[in-house]
Amino acid sequence: MIRTSEETDSGNTERLRLGALKNLPLMDTPAVERFDRITRTARELFDVPTGSP
User: Fold this and answer.
1) pTM (global) more than 0.90
2) What residues does each domain of the chain span?
3) How far is CA 22 from CA 8, 26, 47, 51, in A?
4) CA distance linking residue 20 with residue 13, whole number of Å
5) Contact at 8 Å (CB) between 52 and 40?
């Protein structure tokens, strides 16, 4: 993948990432147990915090 200079700037990259995320119909949706289970497993395997229970 070829990146533009706008995409390689970390501040712009973050703004683009957040803008793309906000445009997806994923935010504020009901919890889905099978996805929560995957998130919990990944959190335990990689010993990292997440925003999910």
Assistant:
1) no
2) 5-46
3) 20, 8, 27, 16
4) 11
5) yes
Task: Report the C-alpha dihedral over residues 39, 40, 46, 50, rounded to 10 degrees.
Answer: 70
In whole angstroms, give the CA distance from residue 36 to residue 12: 30
| DSSP characters over 1-53 | -PPPHHHHSHHHHHHHHHHHHHHSTTTTPPP-HHHHHHHHHHHHHHT---S--
Q: What is the pLDDT of residues 6-45, one digit of tens each?
A: 556 778 899 998 999 889 988 788 999 999 999 899 999 9
Cα gap 8→15, rounded to integer Å: 12
Tokens 């999910």, located at residue: 52
